[in-house]
Design goal:
Blueprint lengths: L5 E9 L3 E11 L2 E10 L4 E12 L10 E14 L2 E15 L2 E12 L3 E10 L2 E9 L2 E10 L9 E14 L3 E14 L2 E13 L6 E12 L2 E12 L4 E9 L2 E12 L2 E12 L5 E4 L3 E6 L2 E4 L2 E5 L2 E10 L3 E12 L11 E4 L1 E10 L5 E9 L2 E6 L4 E6 L2 E7 L3 E10 L3 E10 L12 E10 L13 E16 L3 E16 L4 E12 L4 E10 L2 E10 L7 E9 L1 E6 L2 E14 L2 E15 L29 E18 L2 E13 L6 E15 L2 E15 L4 E10 L2 E9 L4 E8 L4 H10 L8 H13 L5 H11 L4 E5 L8 E7 L4 E8 L5 E8 L4 E7 L4 E6 L4
Parallel strand pairs: 42-43
Antiparallel strand pairs: 1-2, 2-3, 3-4, 4-5, 5-6, 6-7, 7-8, 8-9, 9-10, 10-11, 11-12, 12-13, 13-14, 14-15, 15-16, 16-17, 17-18, 18-19, 18-20, 19-22, 20-21, 21-23, 22-23, 23-24, 24-26, 25-28, 26-27, 27-30, 28-29, 30-31, 31-32, 32-33, 33-34, 34-35, 35-36, 36-37, 37-38, 38-39, 39-41, 40-41, ...
Helix pairs in contact: 2-3
Length: 856
């Protein structure tokens, strides 16, 4: 208000007993105030004023209340001999406020002993509030609210509110009554679907009072509460309080009785229920006493129990001594916390503990807490077995005093070793020391001589064993913590069934220094070979983790599963920076046996097929991989599958860049190759896969042949893997159809039987030979074939090759031969009209059909 800018003028005349105001002209809040009237001070103070304000914008001073208002005030009255009289006065306001129509009207009068509010009505947007009544030695006020949108009256609040009530009784001890309901209420991120409140309070305490509040679907701080209720009834000297709140799988409820006497409230917690969902349902063991006064407050021993478990708390507050509390936990079963463990773990045993805390009026905190787990067991389930892990006595102790915060903990395993650790923060006091100034020292020591739990965290690993020792030191400040020490894995072993591997002689050493650099050195064997990794890694708060590693090995068995056996000798340098991976080096495969399963029935999609909802690869999920790798095949890499038996040699240089298909330069060569097709063995004279770009579509340079007496027939394959081009040749030279016949059947086409001719026809079409259309026509003409089609079955191996011929203009005969199964089918079709046909079929299944053709 002192900063509210205004300017203006007042004109009139006066004397020593009164002043007459003829004109009032004031500029304020971007509007004007005009008025007239008179003021007297003798023989007593009196006034009669008429004021009109136009174009006022409260948003000039209060930004959330932008608007444009007009206000009119008529008032008169007097004050003399200690008595005040306000004659009936009126206030009118109208305009827009916060983009809503506003209208307000009030009419009142007053004396020394009474205020009469004849009318007070305020409407804004969809909302209206009204108050009327008198205030004298007693209250007699009534109010009513119909708020269609709470934002009409209060910024940021939304929802519908309805209510009515009264204020009666004596001036000193009023009786407050009201009924309020709300729907779809919200403020910022907090909300409630429904709220109901009943208020009937006698502050003189001559009768029982009632406060009953209920709400549904309440969201506070992101937590949803399905229902919540609070009810208090009775007098000040004898009343009860009940509260109940329910969430999904969770509930809290309590019932308190008590009374206020001689400035002290004494009560009793009669009942309490706490169901956290995860930790089960707890209830009050026995009633607990409560007391509150201006100088002291406290509770008796308050214990919640669940089966044999008990959680007890006792607190007190003294204005001069501060807060003191004690807590104890007895026989709390670890099985209660099964929901926070992985489903494969079954904990067994109990936790016991206790502690106390003191907080002085000067803000000094001290206390101690101890948790103890007696000996017990932990069970880990795999697909094949249930591992029994015996656990010795374990504990954790926390002590806070004026010297330091000290934390010590140890977990003992009866036959597996231990984990121990500690931390000390000298001079620590909550809320007093900045993280940058708070010193910290600590240590962690571990000795684990059985690693059969590793599959719990790495599901691909099985039958893990070995021992781990660690000595970690912590120092610095809370803001800049340095971790040094070392960790060693010795005599490790693990199986990877998915790859058929048995990893043995695993060793790994990690050593960290004060600069955050970790030296890495590891080694393992697989089969008759070995591999090693060594380098450094860095962990910093300011930047992403990084690592520089070298992987080197010889004759390492990388895969050993049915159909695939691969030995590798890697020499690869890796550099990792956050999610960016760079690599360079070589990978030699000296030995391999590849015999993939027969996928002859599989069909590749054509180029115009688009596959949606494909899973996102790791690269696409955030990793960026790039680098170069020289891939070399030794002299003992053999392949057997899809009719091909051979040895593969050669090598390619691979290049990887984010967002592109892996590129390759080089070639793989097929050596000592044999290929079986249509029951014949073809010798591979030359076989090369040429890489000069994307590795998924190499070039082809293949020549295979078969010699029958003095005739050599074969095929040349050129083009690429996705678009091969085949050409049949022969020595001596002959038609391509006869050359194909020699290659498949060992004799010319004119010496083939009818069924062999059909096979030859299908081979010419399905092989996609160069000039295959011409060859197929020639073969078809030689055997009287007019039509040919391949009809799919319910499974790929049920495909049938159909050849057909019109015996007359209306009679059509077709014969089907199974491409993969020895099944024959004869079909005879007769065209009754251009649209109506009758067809019969004889084969593995026989029947007849009447077909009607609809053309579009």
């Amino acid at each position: 208000w002192p900063d509210l800018p205004l300017s203006g003028a007042v004109s009139g005349n006066g004397s020593d007993i009164k002043a007459d105001i003829s004109a009032l002209d004031v500029n304020i809040l971007n509007g004007t105030v005009a008025g007239n009237g008179s003021v007297s001070w003798l023989p007593h103070i009196s006034w009669s004023l008429n004021v009109h304000a136009a174009g006022l914008n409260p948003g000039i001073q209060w930004p959330e209340w932008q608007g444009l208002l007009n206000v009119t005030v008529h008032t008169s009255g007097q004050y003399g001999k200690g008595a005040l009289t306000v004659k009936p006065s009126e206030v009118f306001a109208e305009g827009r406020l916060r983009d809503r129509l506003l209208k307000a009207q009030a009419k009142l009068s007053a004396t020394d002993s009474e205020l009469e509010l004849s009318r007070l009505d305020v409407s804004s947007g969809k909302s209206r509030v009204s108050v009327s009544g008198t205030v004298s030695d007693a209250w007699s006020l009534k109010w009513k609210a119909q708020i269609g949108d709470a934002a009409d009256l209060i910024p940021k609040v939304k929802g519908i509110i309805e209510g009515s009530g009264s204020l009666t009784g004596s001036r000193s001890y009023p009786v407050i009554k009201g009924n309020i309901s709300g729907r779809a209420l919200s403020y910022d991120n907090d909300s409630a679907d429904n709220i109901r409140a009943v208020i009937d309070i006698d502050t003189k305490d001559e009768r029982a009072s009632l406060l009953d509040i209920r709400a549904a679907n309440v969201v506070i701080g992101g937590q949803k509460i399905n229902t919540v209720s609070l009810k208090s009834s009775g007098t000040g000297s004898a009343h009860s309080i009940s509260m109940d709140a329910a969430m999904d799988r969770k509930r809290a409820a309590l019932f308190i009785t008590g009374g206020y006497k001689d400035r002290i409230w004494n009560g009793k917690l009669n009942n309490a229920v706490l169901d956290t969902g995860t930790f089960g349902a707890w209830s009050l063991r026995e009633p607990a006493s409560l007391s509150v006064s201006a100088d002291k407050a406290g509770s008796g021993l308050l214990c919640l129990i669940r089966n044999a478990s008990a959680l007890c708390l006792q607190t007190s507050w003294d204005r001069d001594k501060g807060v003191k509390g004690r807590v104890s936990l007895t026989d709390f079963p670890l099985s209660t916390m099964k929901d926070i463990f992985p489903s494969s773990i079954e904990p067994e045993g109990n936790i016991n503990g206790g502690g106390e805390i003191v907080y002085t009026p000067e803000g000094v905190m001290s206390g101690n807490v101890s948790l103890i787990m007696p000996s017990g067991k932990l069970y880990y389930r795999t697909d094949d077995e249930r591992i029994d892990i015996s656990r010795g006595k374990s504990r954790a102790d926390i002590i806070l005093d004026e010297k330091a915060l000290d934390v010590q903990a140890e977990i003992l395993f009866s036959d597996r070793g231990y984990i121990k650790g500690g931390m000390n923060l000298p001079g620590f006091m909550p809320g007093r020391t900045a993280a940058a100034d708070q010193r910290i020292t600590g240590h962690i020591a571990a000795e684990l001589n059985n690693l059969d739990l590793i599959p719990l965290f790495a599901e691909k690993l099985h039958k893990t064993s070995g021992s781990v020792g660690a000595e970690i030191r912590i120092h610095g400040t809370l803001a800049e913590t340095a971790i040094t020490g070392d960790m060693t894995l010795q005599e490790g072993s693990a199986d990877i069934p998915d790859l058929g591997l048995q990893l043995r002689d695993i060793t790994l050493t990690l050593k960290g220094d004060e600069r955050g650099k970790i030296t890495v050195e590891g080694r393992l064997s697989s089969g008759s070979g070995h591999a090693a990794v060594y380098g450094t890694a860095e962990l910093h708060k300011e930047k992403s983790p990084s690592a520089v590693l070298r992987i080197q090995g010889a004759d390492f068995e990388a895969v050993k599963i049915p159909g695939t056996w691969i030995i590798i000798s890697p020499y690869i340098d890796l550099r990792v920076e956050g999610t960016i991976v760079d690599f360079a080096g070589s990978l030699t495969i000296p030995k391999a046996r590849l015999a993939p399963p027969d996928l002859s029935g599989a069909v590749l999609p054509s180029k115009d097929v688009v596959i949606t909802d494909m899973p996102v690869s790791e690269k696409e999920a955030g990793w960026s991989v790039r680098g170069k790798l020289k891939l070399s095949l030794g002299d003992n890499v053999r392949f057997r599958g899809y009719g091909l038996t051979c040895r593969i040699t050669g090598g390619i240089d691979l290049a990887e860049q984010p967002g592109t298909v892996t590129q390759g330069q080089g070639e793989f060569r097929i050596v000592e190759g044999k290929y079986k097709a249509y029951g014949q063995d073809l010798t591979i004279e030359k076989g090369r896969l040429l890489f000069v770009g994307p590795v998924d579509d190499p070039g082809l340079d293949i020549r295979a042949f078969r010699t029958i007496k003095d005739v050599t027939a074969g095929v040349n394959v050129q083009g690429t893997l996705k678009t091969p081009a085949l050409h049949v040749y022969s020595v001596p030279a002959m038609d391509e159809s006869d050359a194909l016949s020699y290659m498949l059947f060992g004799r010319p086409m004119n010496r083939l039987s009818g069924s062999e001719g059909n096979q030859l026809y299908g081979a010419a079409l399905s092989a996609g030979l160069s000039a295959g259309g011409f060859a197929a026509k020639k073969i078809g003409a030689a055997f009287g074939i007019e039509d040919i089609e391949i009809e799919k079955g319910e499974a790929p191996e049920q495909a049938t090759l159909f050849i057909g011929k019109y015996l007359s203009p209306r009679l059509y005969l077709s014969y089907g031969i199974g491409l993969f199964e020895p099944v024959s089918t004869i079909r005879l079709r007769y065209d009754l009209t251009r649209r109506l046909q009758v067809q019969t079929e004889y084969g593995l299944e026989s029947g007849g059909d009447i077909m009607y053709i609809i053309e579009r």
